[in-house]
Specification:
This protein has helices at residues 2-25, 44-62, 77-82, 93-101, 109-114, 117-120, 123-126, 160-165, 180-187, 192-196, 206-210, 261-270, 273-281, 301-309, and strands spanning 29-30, 34-40, 65-71, 88-91, 130-131, 134-135, 138-139, 143-150, 170-173, 198-200, 216-220, 232-235, 244-246, 250-252, 259-260, 311-312. The protein has 317 residues and is an alpha/beta fold. Helix 2 (44-62) links the parallel strand 2 and strand 3.
């Protein structure tokens, strides 16, 4: 009997050791049956294409309800500072910096390490959540700028002489509002003749690119899935211009009170190979190294290389 009691005592001691070690990482954390997500300054296209899909899959798999509050008003950042019910914030890199400076974001270094995120994803992607050598946010899918052209209306790779002679203008189609001046700077476009023919386009114009009404466009890689591969090619412009990487939506956890454990499970789920592969199969190309092996030698490999080696937008903020 004494041996049995001694054995039970050892088991309890081991259990307590594990709990105490774990609590250092997950301080003030509780389990809940719902997650309150506050979305600020993110376009609805990105919510529908990326986050809403992740939320639905997570809810179905885990029987967890995700409540989303969506706003484009930057002033509501003040509400984040005062609302104890917010479990997860999805916002821009710029707002990550603001919230970090106010001291309310949880350091996510432990989550990055536990899930080998730096090993599994390209550096260009993981750096977007980095501030002062620590991680305070993690994205889900980055996107690049891609120059595409309709093979039926443009012979080979388009050059500025041909564009000028044919009086061609080029739409820049992105899921977020980025000023053309920023595009010139990021891509290192100095030629005034090229600047003159660029304009801010709409997602609806992708149809006109496929049928040849618009010969050339600059698009987000999010929209590569909407391109007719038999008619449209991607121009690898990396030898001429820089290729910036964007992310419309970084996940952040407010550091205060009791933190909802399910938030960390949701972040891990969004970055799992399984979910990242599902996005890739839908045509949304991410930064997961293992998943991107499927694109070797294919149409999408140009986009993968741009994500891998691109210049990060807003990283200096």
């Amino acid at each position: 009997m004494k041996k049995i009691l001694k054995f039970i005592g050892v088991l309890l001691l081991i259990s307590m050791t594990f709990i105490s070690c774990d609590s250092k990482k997950y301080k003030n954390i509780s389990e809940k049956d719902s997650i309150n997500v506050f979305v600020v300054d993110i376009k609805k296209d990105t919510m529908e294409e990326v986050f809403s899909k992740v939320f639905k899959k997570f809810e179905k798999k885990n029987s967890i309800k995700i409540n989303t509050i969506y706003s484009k008003d930057k002033k509501v950042l003040d509400e984040i500072l005062n609302n104890e019910k917010i479990d997860l914030i999805i916002s821009s890199r710029k707002n990550l910096v603001t919230l970090k400076e106010k001291g309310i974001l949880k350091n996510l270094d432990f989550l990055v390490k536990e899930n080998s995120i730096k090993d599994r994803f390209y550096d260009s992607f993981t750096l977007l959540g980095l501030k002062e050598e620590s991680y305070y946010g993690i994205g889900v899918l980055p996107y690049t700028l891609e120059v595409i052209y309709n093979k039926g209306t443009i012979t080979g790779v388009p050059d500025k002489k041909e564009l000028k002679n044919k009086n061609i203008t080029i739409p820049v189609i992105l899921p977020e509002e980025v000023k053309l001046e920023e595009i010139y700077k990021l891509m290192d476009i100095k030629d005034e003749k090229i600047k003159e023919i660029l304009y801010v386009g709409r997602k609806e114009e992708l149809i006109s690119i496929n049928n040849g009404e618009i010969p050339v466009a600059v698009i987000s890689s999010y929209y590569a899935k909407d391109i007719d591969k038999s008619r449209v090619s991607i121009f690898d412009y990396s030898k001429i211009y820089n290729y910036p990487i964007f992310i419309d939506g970084i996940m952040m956890v407010p550091e205060r009170g009791n933190i909802n454990m399910e938030v960390f499970n949701l972040i891990k789920f969004a970055l799992s190979d399984e979910v990242q592969e599902e996005f890739s199969k839908e045509g949304l190309i991410g930064a997961n190294k293992k998943v991107n092996e499927m694109f070797k030698g294919k149409y999408e490999e140009v986009i993968v290389n741009h994500i891998k080696k691109g210049i990060i937008y807003n990283i200096k903020e």
